[in-house]
From TrEMBL:
<dbReference type="InterPro" id="IPR058031">
    <property type="entry name" value="AAA_lid_NorR"/>
</dbReference>
<dbReference type="InterPro" id="IPR003593">
    <property type="entry name" value="AAA+_ATPase"/>
</dbReference>
<dbReference type="InterPro" id="IPR025944">
    <property type="entry name" value="Sigma_54_int_dom_CS"/>
</dbReference>
<dbReference type="InterPro" id="IPR001789">
    <property type="entry name" value="Sig_transdc_resp-reg_receiver"/>
</dbReference>
<keyword id="KW-0597">Phosphoprotein</keyword>
<keyword id="KW-0804">Transcription</keyword>
<dbReference type="GO" id="GO:0000160">
    <property type="term" value="P:phosphorelay signal transduction system"/>
</dbReference>
<dbReference type="InterPro" id="IPR002078">
    <property type="entry name" value="Sigma_54_int"/>
</dbReference>
<protein>
    <submittedName>
        <fullName>ATPase AAA</fullName>
    </submittedName>
</protein>
<keyword id="KW-0547">Nucleotide-binding</keyword>
<dbReference type="Pfam" id="PF00072">
    <property type="entry name" value="Response_reg"/>
</dbReference>
<keyword id="KW-0175">Coiled coil</keyword>
<dbReference type="InterPro" id="IPR011006">
    <property type="entry name" value="CheY-like_superfamily"/>
</dbReference>
<feature type="modified residue" description="4-aspartylphosphate">
    <location>
        <position position="53"/>
    </location>
</feature>
<dbReference type="GO" id="GO:0006355">
    <property type="term" value="P:regulation of DNA-templated transcription"/>
</dbReference>
<dbReference type="Pfam" id="PF00158">
    <property type="entry name" value="Sigma54_activat"/>
</dbReference>
<feature type="domain" description="Sigma-54 factor interaction">
    <location>
        <begin position="140"/>
        <end position="365"/>
    </location>
</feature>
Amino acid sequence: MTAILVVDDEKEIGTFLSHLFLEKGYRVDVMSCGSEFLQIELETCFYDLALIDLKLPDTNGLMILEKIKQHQPNCKVVIMTGYSTIETAVRAIKLGASDYIEKPFDDIDLLEEQIDQLLLKTPTRGGQHVTNLANEVGFIIGSNQTMVELAELAYKVANKNINVLIEGETGTGKEVLARFLHQASSRNYSSFIGVNCGALSESLLESELFGHEKGSFTGATKQRKGLFEVATNGTLFLDEVVEASSSIQVKLLRVLESKEFMRVGSEKVIKTNARIIAATNENLFEAVKQKKFREDLYYRLNVVHLVIPPLRERIEDIPLLLNYYLQRYPEVKLAFTDEAMDMLQHYSWPGNIRELTNFVTRLVAIEDANEAIIGAEQLPFSVQPQKETLPAKVKSNVAEMSPNHKLKEIIEKWMNKTLNKYEEEEVNLEEILSEMKGLETEVARAFINKALDKTYGNRKAASKQLHINLRKLRYLLNEKEK
């Protein structure tokens, strides 16, 4: 028999939930405080579901959550909370809660549906379902633990009508994560609309967000709906929100607080139900401290805070990501040698996922054959890992390519030696000519090694820079041995 635990200090809620679940044939235990809960023998008394009030007279609901998860990790936990404590409820989800429910229960049918879904949810709706849904929108999770936890949290809050703030470096995929949130929500039937707050002037951004009436400004030849109106039942993505002007920030705050706005040049109030997802490549809290961003708007946007790690912190996912982006070109089959993959995994990728996709596009474009195995020497010269981060195997190869001394030192050493001999009464000219050939070899190797350093071992690119063919480069690197 399905067993449910209810812990809430409001007697009416306990009685209501007990009656609701008993009618469904479940076993229900109702408790009103933390001290009653602590009397349960969790090693022998098992529950399928626990509904816990976040605020209890003698304890915090998070303590009960942790106790249950410690002894019964398979028990699903739902936190019951008021709107003012939603941020704490989101923290509860991070600690292992399956969901949270806002009190009072305005929609009993929705409450029953949430509970039934949790109790009837099959294992296939877990991690693999999240991965499949993410793949549909191009949000590749991979095996990195930070990314796995990020995706799980995003999936849990996707269906909540709360604002989300996404932070991450440029190119990490903030908009793709926003699309994943939209797709995983019940709003996926409606529009996902994005706008870059840093790409438009203040007046254009205001018109874009709120719309305008005909004749409200020069060039306004007809009425236009704003994005808050167009996305009213969907998701509005505000990219680089930190770039919004102070005036726009005030207007955004008003919309988030009241769910109302007016078009530019109009006095008519329009309602909106758009779900807001904001993103920035800056630390928004730091921007608040620097007075660049309004603190009240920050807390309105930052109900749920998601941070995407840079690509250099998830290098174990690079093979998966490369394979995913190469699938966009089914006519080309490329593979990488272990050495090439080592170099790719130890490159810093300052442009993150965006740079990786551009790398794949460029690689496909310059590769002549439809099938090829890419070696380290064939990697485009822009992929230049830091030597100290390279594995020993690759580092040793790079060391062989690098000059041991600068060209100036080579020439100065030869010049001093030759001038000293010039002052002598008697010299061996054949020996001097031989040393000149040695200088030629050293100078050639210095130029080649400089080019190889710049292209990080890509001999094809190095020979192009030196205006010699690849055969000549290899010949000179071999110290002109025939």
